[in-house]
Specification:
binds iron/sulfur cluster; eight-stranded mixed beta sheet; alpha+beta; 362 residues; binds flavin-adenine dinucleotide
Amino acid sequence: MSQDNKVAMVGTPCQIIAAEKMNHFQDVLGESPVDLKVGLFCMENFSYHYLNQLLEEHHIQLKDVSECRVEKGHMWFYLTDGQVLKIPLKEAKTCMRKNCEVCMDYTSELSDLSVGSVGSPAGWSTVIARTVKGLELLKNAEESNYIETRPMTDSGIALIKKLSNQKKEENQKEINKRERVARPVIYRRFITDKQFQEEVAQCQFEDLKADVIDVGTCVLCGSCEYICPENIVKIEDRKPRIRGQCPPDCNLCYVACPRTYLPVEVASPDLDQKPLGDYMKIVSAKASLVKGQDGGVATALLNYALSGGLVNEVLVVDKSSAEPWKPEVKLTSSTDDVLKASGTKYAACPVFKGLKNMKEEL
Ligand SMILES: Cc1cc2nc3c(=O)[nH]c(=O)nc-3n(C[C@H](O)[C@H](O)[C@H](O)COP(=O)(O)OP(=O)(O)OC[C@H]3O[C@@H](n4cnc5c(N)ncnc54)[C@H](O)[C@@H]3O)c2cc1C
Ligand code: SF4
Ligand code: SF4
Ligand code: SF4
């Protein structure tokens, strides 16, 4: 991968873990183009297919929805004709992806910058800068008037901590339950880099299927499809599937997957005791020129990085033009495309597929 290909990505915590793992294992996987990681907060995600069905039961079609939000114990659908449908989260959670039940990261702990809605007033986003690169970007974007910031309130910070701890506690119970009755949740095994090399040496797609896909921990990130040198992995019918034979010495999909072993050198087990993760600064922020999900800050930060030449492409999640509200990944160097992709789509999206074309062009 050429030095010129620098990509900023935005994604859920599990996708950010995948990006960090690919950065960590560049010796094996090849150079990673992802140079800046803007992570989102995420309590859960939904199956597009089941969400569609749920709305149909409420006599609503996704094509008539103009905005969707999860807050105050409900999933809210704002319709183009002005009506509002609210579905209790308990009911909406029947459409939740099973992999989200064993997820321990609420605030994208491995990102450069994390952005969420919780903890800040309506129309503002909460931003956590975790790395020097993230902190610089936040500072420079504010100085260049892409965003404005203000201090968080103590109650805002306390709320994020409470929700993060809640997610970690509830999902740890689910992990314990699954491990008692089924297979281990291996991404929670916390082994060292050295042990990792030994564990994964012989593992191929069949092992990925047995250890991740068949046990309901696949986050549908698309890393396996992106990384496969034989191009035989495809996400079809909501699952990664293989169409061909793996050469005997390949284990790349197993290495890259965020739900196989996660070495302590990538994610420390101490993070379980840190509801906000490790961080340098936390603020509320908004971008007055962007109509985003909250403060439009994720979009503004990505566009600042693009316009300032810090990266030359951005990986965003837009809506499909063929199926309403279906998330669709886009790799772009256009700030208009990034603006168009603002707003949350509450369904899983195999974001790393978006890097595939870039790899194929080289
Ligand atoms: C599945 C999901 C669950 C979330 N849950 C929470 C939560 O529990 N608590 C909380 O505080 N915040 C949550 N968020 C984050 C929140 O909805 C906003 O995305 C965040 O506050 C940023 O707002 P913004 O206005 O700054 O972003 P915007 O400027 O509107 O930009 C949003 C960015 O999100 C990207 N995006 C949209 N959908 C997806 C997707 N499915 N996968 C990956 N990237 C996507 C777009 O590419 C866009 O660049 C969640 C987001 C997602 C995608
Ligand atoms: S596994 Fe689910 S809850 Fe966890 S970050 Fe990914 S989408 Fe969000
Ligand atoms: S060829 Fe390699 S990366 Fe592709 S599916 Fe087989 S083991 Fe995985
Ligand atoms: S199996 Fe593939 S799509 Fe699923 S989490 Fe692993 S790398 Fe991502």
